[in-house]
Amino acid sequence: KIVIIVTGRFAGKKAIIVKTFDEGTAERKFSHALVAGIERGPLAVSKSMSKKKILKRSKVKPFLKYVNFNHLMPTRYTANDIDLRTHVTPANVKKADTKKTATFETKKL
Q1: What are phi and psi of 98, to 5 degrees?
Q2: Residues 68, 41, 84, 2: is their CA dihedral positive or negative?
Q3: pTM for the complete prediction?
């Protein structure tokens, strides 16, 4: 399911729900979801730009985050063709180094 984050640093950004925790966990005692989203999307490019500039402007910066359900607004869209569950798991997001590699893997998708 595709959602829009309503509050916080990523307010207004689009994200995909990877895993939901309806009952909460030991660390987060509220219902929340692990989301993968786009922090910064690609910029517009034109024919006159150099290849180097086009590559730089075409980059996407993803993010992984646990978000409270109250801070998510669901949309009518779903993303069935992108399978994030294989690359992004709650165990990957716990440690900083594995979170960084998971974010990098998300960028490839």
Answers
A1: -75, -30
A2: positive
A3: 0.76
